Prior knowledge:
The structure is a homodimer of 197-residue chains.
Chain A: E1 6-9, E2 22-27, H1 38-46, E3 51-58, E4 67-74, E5 78-79, E6 82-83, E7 90-91, E8 98-104, E9 107-113, E10 118-123, E11 127-131, E12 135-141, E13 148-155, E14 160-161, H2 163-168, E15 172-177, E16 180-185, H3 187-192
Antiparallel strand pairs in A: 2-3, 3-4, 4-13, 5-6, 7-14, 8-11, 8-13, 9-10, 9-12, 15-16
Amino acid sequence: MKKRPFGYEIRLRDNTIPEFDRRIERRLSALRGQYLDEAAFAQAVLNGDPLVYEVYEIHRPQKEGELLSGLSVVHPGLVGEEFYMTKGHYHEISDTAEVYYCLKGHGLLLMENEQGDTTAEEFRPGRVVYVVPGYAHRSVNLSLEEDLVTFFVYPGNAGHAYGAIEAAGFQKLVVRRNGTYELIQNRAWARKAPGIG
Amino acid sequence: MKKRPFGYEIRLRDNTIPEFDRRIERRLSALRGQYLDEAAFAQAVLNGDPLVYEVYEIHRPQKEGELLSGLSVVHPGLVGEEFYMTKGHYHEISDTAEVYYCLKGHGLLLMENEQGDTTAEEFRPGRVVYVVPGYAHRSVNLSLEEDLVTFFVYPGNAGHAYGAIEAAGFQKLVVRRNGTYELIQNRAWARKAPGIG
C-alpha cells in the first residue's frame, strides 16, 4: 500500500486500469436468482457462463478518511429481456455514500434503501451519480453493443454487504421493451421481503 | 440538500457543472504571496486581475460518510515564469484523502506534507491522482493554451485549511523553462517555515 501520493491511468482504449491492485470478474452464474427468466439464465450459464462485468480496484487502507476508487465495466447483453448488470450491494457501514462518473456507454444506476424507496439515475458519458448514504446500488448496461464504463469513489471504511440483494434482489427489474427500457416491479422481491414490500 | 440519490452533468463543451450548488471564482489577487516574481504579480493584478481558476461544487452534509465532489478548472497563463495554479490547501481533518480524475488539459498536482515530504503527479486526460491523507495539494496548469479540468471527490467532513499555504506557500515552485516545466525550491518557503525546512 502506497504511503505517498500516486497516480494511475484509466485506459479508455481497452477499458482497464493497467496498474490495478485487484481485478474482479463476474460471470453470469454469480447473479443466480437475480434474473426473472430462470430458463434463459440457466441456458446462458450452460452455454459458456458469459462474462457480465469486471471491476478494477485500487487498494487503500479500509478506514475512514481513505477513499477506494476504481473502474466498473459492464458488458452488453440480455438474459431473457433483462439487461446485463452488476450484483449490487449495500455498504456494510450503511451511512456511507458513493460517487460514480460515467466514462462510456449508456446505463442506469438502480438504487433502493431499506425503507423501500427505489430510484434510478441514467449513466451517460459525463454524468455523475451520487448514491446518498443508505442506498443499495446496481449498474445496468442499457446498450446491447457497448460496454458501460464508470469510475467510482467511496469511503475507505464502507465495505460491501451483498446478502440482502442476494436474498431478495432489487425491487425493480430493468427490461428491454420496444427498443428502449422499462422498470417493472420484481414480484420475487415482494415475496422474499414481505416486511418491507 | 437532496435526501435521495441524484445525478448531475459535467459539461465538457464549456467546462462547467450547470447544476452546481456553488461556483468559486479565484482571481490572481487571491494568490498574493504565492508567486516568486512579485513585480509580475503586481502588474497582472493591476492589469485587470485575471481569473485564474474556477471551482464548481455540489453540496452535501459536511460529515463523515458523505462525499464532496465537483469540478476544478484552472485557466492557462503565466505570472513571470510560473504557471497559473490554485491556492492549494490542507484538509482541516488532516487524515482525509482526495481523488482527482483529469478530464482535460495537462497539469500537475503539487503535494507536500507537514513532515516536509514533497511530490508531484502529472495530470493528463484519463489519469487519476490519489492524495493520501495528510498532504496539501495544489493544481498547476502546465499548458499555455488549454484549461486544466479535473473532477474531484473527498470526504464530506474533510474541510479546507488554507492558512499554512497562505503563510509559507509550497516548498516547490513550478516554472516554465525551455518550453517545458521544472520544479524549483521556493526560497520564501524555507524562510517562512524554518522549523521544517
